[in-house]
Design goal:
The complex is a heterodimer of chains A (about 130) and B (about 850).
Chain A: E1 3-8, H1 12-21, E2 27-32, H2 35-45, E3 49-53, H3 61-70, E4 79-83, H4 88-96, E5 101-104, H5 109-121
Parallel strand pairs in A: 1-2, 1-3, 3-4, 4-5
Helix pairs in contact in A: 2-3
Chain B: H1 8-17, H2 28-47, H3 51-63, E1 70-77, E2 82-90, E3 93-94, E4 100-101, H4 108-115, E5 119-120, E6 132-134, E7 137-138, E8 142-150, E9 153-162, H5 170-227, E10 231-236, E11 241-244, H6 246-252, H7 256-259, H8 264-269, H9 278-290, E12 297-302, H10 305-310, E13 323-333, E14 339-348, H11 350-386, H12 391-423, E15 431-433, H13 435-447, E16 453-458, E17 466-468, H14 470-486, E18 492-501, E19 504-510, H15 545-555, E20 560-563, E21 572-578, E22 596-600, H16 604-616, E23 620-624, H17 627-636, E24 641-646, H18 651-664, E25 672-676, H19 681-686, E26 691-694, H20 699-710, E27 712-717, H21 721-733, E28 736-741, H22 744-754, E29 758-762, H23 770-779, E30 788-792, H24 798-806, E31 809-813, H25 819-832, H26 837-840, H27 845-848
Chain lengths: ~130, ~850
């Protein structure tokens, strides 16, 4: 069975990195390059997992995550924040917005791969 | 008691002992009146302090009891040695007598004082009676003179006289002695009083002066305190404020009169300024006050009144336009160390806060901007190391790594550039720059990957060269063009125009893109300023690009500006550059043919890479990682340039080598490019490096620099245009910068502008011959050693040959040379400018072609 994953990042190199990292897995990757695209894609495609960059132009990753969690149709989708901001405060903000994990850039692609596989094979989190 | 002359002491003591009441010869009435007069005199003396009034009183008191037609008082002024007359009454009139010499005056009164003798007419005891009682006053028929004594010294005399002979009895004499005693006491008292009065007056004067001084000091102190840039508030042990300067009132936004006489606690409460987090601040102020002995300091933030009005409620986050104050408490003590109270000074630290905020922002931007490309580099490198990919994918990944690493490098350079530009440590290598060519090469770097945009260049070839640092100018142009492209996301035309306006060239870069809002205009060139409109948020940047451009343009002495009709209507950035001063026409050489570059690089991988690049650039290379080998090679043959790497862990080895090379060759004789991962540009330049490149650098830049610095100038002097053309072509191809002139005069004129490394000289020219030129050169101290190669068709006789040898000229007969031979002779002439010919030795291509590191053989 193939999984749908949404990656939202305004940096095309990073999207390519995620694409290459997940190329061996049975994953369909949807790409968005800003916050509002990400929100629209999440609602339209209902991916199994969302990878969100924090510092995106327009809507930030945090804002997107909060919006996703407010919407009951998208709330159960696990969100992983990807960010160059590495302070504990930033991580707390990410997790507080409803993300299940916070990966600090630069991250190891293997680490991302393992995290994605774990999250895909875990039962979905209880939205309550 | 003797009736004759007696000493004053004697007569005085006699008077004390002898009561006048016991005198039997005097009628009672006169005696009583005399006693009464004496009493009056004594009383008057006791009351009165003014000397002349007192003497006048004595005179009148005596008038009724003695026959007095003359009444005279003389007083000694010891300091001046004179005798003065405070009162002289003659027949009822007061006379003013001038003071006389106390030691020499012959009048009776002076004698009485000098001899300290009592005299009575008829019993003077003098051999010659003086003719005058006092200067200008004849001696009367009867007289009585008594010295005025004080502590055994005569301070003056009292003299009375009458026309009636025998007017004074011996009893009258004793009476007058008593009067004299009273007068002496009174004079003494009066003198004492005057002294006290004088003293009091001087004391008073001193008090007035001191008060004025204190007032001036107070004024000075106050104006100093009022002029402080810091606010100052003082308060007593009871906490009541006793002083505040105007600045404190200004900073706290509280009227001065409300600041003084209030309790410090209330300062923050009732009349308190718009303090943010008032309660928290009050608490920390109280805490600080308790620990005032430790000189505590704390910060407070005041809302800007304007900003405060806009905010309805108290918001706790930092205001955009607040005022930050630093408050420093201190105990106040007097000189003895007793506590009088406390005080605090207030400093406006808004600017410092703002700087801190900018610095924090910079760090955030930098860390974010750096991490983004690093993520790709690390990520792809890890994937390549751990997994297998098909070749096209591999290539794509490596390309991404390369691109992101370059982005990273560019970013770092951006920051460092700006720092250097701002600190003014970046030196502009100003030279003549062909703007048209430079613009084309900058534009070329965009041509490949900017499809939706059209880049139109309108930079005429005919523009005069500008005075600029080509690299910095290219950077500025690149930034501006790149911005124009970035901020016209829907594509369109980007126009680069340049035109001459008087002594400057005006360059404009315009686009049809997003345009600029009017409020952004004043901030555009500020560091970190980014126009924040929704359409611009998608576009990334460091916020440093325009700041760098502005720094570069102002370092060139140019102006920069921006224009935009408004959002959505495109924008134009313009700047000016000064036109370069004209120089002698020169035909620039194209590619170097066969020069050799000496490379010192201790890292073998780097060395191989560098040699490869240089070889691609058409140079022969000799490289080594050992300073001794470099120096040896240098002694054998002078290279056209040295690339010297200064590397940790032992940068001193590189610096040492640089110093050693500079001991042998001056900067203008041999260019040295220093490369390093360290940013030690200053050190390198101070030790004599011509250029400094921070690794990683673009190899094309290295070659461009070598070309710029390594080219040696040859001045060819010949009246034959054919020969000039031939030389130009041959030598240019061999990597020389060739300048041609057609006469000896022109050659001498161009020397100071050109500073050639070599002169190639024809002997047979009209007007000034080659010999004349040579003579002029050798007579000029600065050019005594300038190598000269004589090119001649003339048959040289022995005399000519000797002359040329004496002038140290090399000779090459015309028509007997090939391009190779010409180059060899030119090289030899250049070399022998430093080395005597017997040491130059056999040197040639064999070492020039050696790119092997000797220590690896």
């Amino acid at each position: 069975m193939t999984h749908k994953i949404l990656i939202a990042d305004d940096d095309p190199s990073l999207r390519l990195l995620v694409r290459v990292t997940l190329s061996d897995s049975s994953v369909t990757l949807i790409e968005a390059n800003d916050g509002s695209q990400a929100l629209a894609a999440a609602r339209a495609e209902r991916p199994d997992l969302i990878l969100l960059d924090v510092a995106m132009p327009g809507l930030t990753g945090l804002e997107v995550c909060r919006a996703l969690k407010r919407d009951p149709t998208t709330a159960p989708i696990p969100v992983v924040m990807l960010s160059a901001k590495d302070k504990e405060h930033d991580q707390n903000l990410g997790l507080g917005a409803g993300a299940v994990a916070y990966l600090t850039k630069p991250f190891s692609p293997l680490q991302l791969l393992y995290l994605v596989e774990d999250l895909l094979h875990e039962p979905p989190a209880d939205p309550g | 008691m003797s009736p004759g002359l007696s000493s004053p002491q004697g007569s005085n003591s006699a008077l004390v002992r002898t009561s006048p009441l016991r005198e039997p010869q005097m009628p009672m009435l006169r005696h009583e009146r005399q006693l009464e007069a004496l009493l009056r005199i004594g009383t008057a003396m006791a009351a009165s302090l003014g000397l002349s009034n007192l003497l006048r009183g004595v005179w009148h008191s005596l008038e009724g009891v003695l026959d007095i037609e003359l009444f005279l008082v003389a007083l000694v002024d010891e300091a001046a040695g004179r005798l003065s007359f405070p009162l002289c009454a003659c027949n009822g009139d007061e006379l003013n007598l001038t003071p006389v010499d106390f030691f020499r005056d012959p009048s009776l009164v002076a004698i009485v004082v000098r001899h300290r003798q009592v005299v009575r007419s008829g019993e003077t005891g003098l051999d010659d009676e003086p003719a005058q009682a006092a200067p200008g006053i004849p001696l009367p028929a009867a007289f009585l003179g008594v010295p005025l004594m004080s502590q055994g010294r005569a301070m003056g005399a009292l003299l009375v006289g009458s026309r009636r002979a025998g007017a004074y009895s011996p009893r009258d004499k004793r009476f007058l002695q008593l009067v004299a005693t009273q007068i002496s006491l009174a004079v003494e008292k009066s003198r004492l009083y005057e002294a006290v009065l004088r003293h009091a007056r001087s004391l008073e004067e001193r008090v007035v002066a001191r008060t004025a001084e204190l007032q001036a000091e107070k004024t000075r102190f106050e104006s100093t305190v009022q002029s402080l840039r810091e606010g100052l508030v003082l308060f007593g042990l009871d906490g009541m404020t006793s002083f505040a300067n105007r600045r404190a009132s200004e900073l706290l936004q509280v009227p001065l009169e409300e600041l003084i006489g209030t309790h410090v606690k209330d300062l923050w409460q009732d009349v308190g300024p718009a303090i943010l987090e008032r309660e928290a601040f009050q608490e920390s102020f109280q805490r600080a006050l308790r620990a005032v002995e430790t000189y505590p300091e704390l910060d407070l933030c005041l809302r800007d009144p304007a900003a405060a009005r806009e905010r309805a409620s108290e918001v706790l986050d930092a205001p955009e336009s607040g005022r930050f104050l630093n408050l420093r408490l201190f105990p106040v003590r007097d000189t003895a160390g007793t506590r009088l109270g406390s005080g605090f000074i207030l400093l406006d630290i808004t600017r410092e806060r703002e700087m801190d905020r900018m610095k924090d922002e910079l760090i955030n931007v930098v860390s974010h901007e750096l991490r983004t490309p690093i993520s790709s580099v690390i990520g792809f490198a890890e994937l390549l190391l751990t997994r297998q990919f098909p070749a096209p994918r591999q290539r794509q990944m490596i390309e991404t790594i390369h691109r992101e690493a370059e982005r990273l490098s560019a970013l770092i350079n951006h920051f460092l550039d700006l720092r250097r530009l701002e600190s003014g440590s970046e030196m502009m290598a100003l030279q003549r720059v062909n703007l048209s060519k430079l613009t084309r090469s900058v534009a070329a770097s965009f041509a490949l990957n900017q499809k939706p945009h059209v880049l139109r260049l309108e930079v005429p070839e005919t523009l005069p060269p500008v005075r600029a640092d080509p690299e910095r100018l290219a950077q500025a142009l690149h930034n501006l063009i790149s911005n124009a492209i970035k901020y016209s996301p829907d594509g369109g035309e980007v126009r680069v125009r340049a035109q001459l306006a008087q002594s400057e060239v005006v360059i404009t870069i315009s686009d049809d893109g997003l345009g600029l809002p009017a409020e952004a205009m004043p901030h555009l060139f500020q560091k970190f300023y980014r126009v924040d409109t929704s359409d611009r948020r998608k576009i990334r940047g460091t916020g440093l690009g325009l700041a760098i451009v502005r720094q570069i343009i102002s370092a060139h002495g140019g102006r920069i500006w921006a224009e935009s009709p408004g959002p959505g209507q495109g924008s134009t950035f313009g700047f000016t550059l000064p036109v370069a001063a004209p120089t002698t026409s020169s035909l620039k050489a194209s590619a170097p043919d066969d020069p050799y570059v000496l490379v010192y690089e201790s890292d073998h991988g780097q060395q191989a890479l560098l040699c490869e690049h240089l070889k691609c650039g058409g140079y022969h290379v000799f490289s080594s990682g050992q300073p001794e080998v470099i120096l040896q090679t240098l002694r054998r043959q002078k290279p056209i340039g040295v690339v010297l790497d200064v590397a940790p862990p032992d940068p001193d080895q590189g610096w040492g080598l640089l110093r050693a090379i500079r001991e042998r060759y001056r900067t203008e004789e041999l260019p040295i490019l220093v490369t390093s991962v360290l940013d030690e540009r200053e050190t390198a330049l101070s030790l004599g490096a011509n250029e400094y490149l921070v690794k990683p650098f673009d190899s094309n830049r290295l070659i461009a620099l070598l070309e710029q610095t390594a080219k040696r100038r040859v001045l060819v002097v010949d009246d034959d245009v054919m020969i000039l053309e031939l030389m130009q072509t041959t030598l240019t191809r061999s990597g020389y910068e060739v300048h041609c002139v057609q006469s000896g005069e022109a050659a001498l004129d161009s020397l100071s502008d050109l500073e050639p490394d070599l002169v190639i000289l024809d002997l047979m020219m009209p007007e000034m011959s080659g010999f004349d030129v040579l003579r002029a050169l050798r007579d000029d101290g600065a050019r005594r050693d300038l190598p000269v190669l004589v090119l001649t068709a003339k048959h040289l006789n022995e005399e000519d040959q000797q002359l040329l040898e004496r002038y140290g000229a090399h000779v090459l007969p015309k028509g007997h040379y090939t391009a190779v031979r010409l180059r060899a002779v030119v090289e030899q002439a250049l070399r022998e400018a430093r080395f005597p010919s017997h040491l130059a030795g056999a040197l040639h291509e064999d070492i020039c072609h050696d790119t092997q590191d000797p220590d690896r053989r």
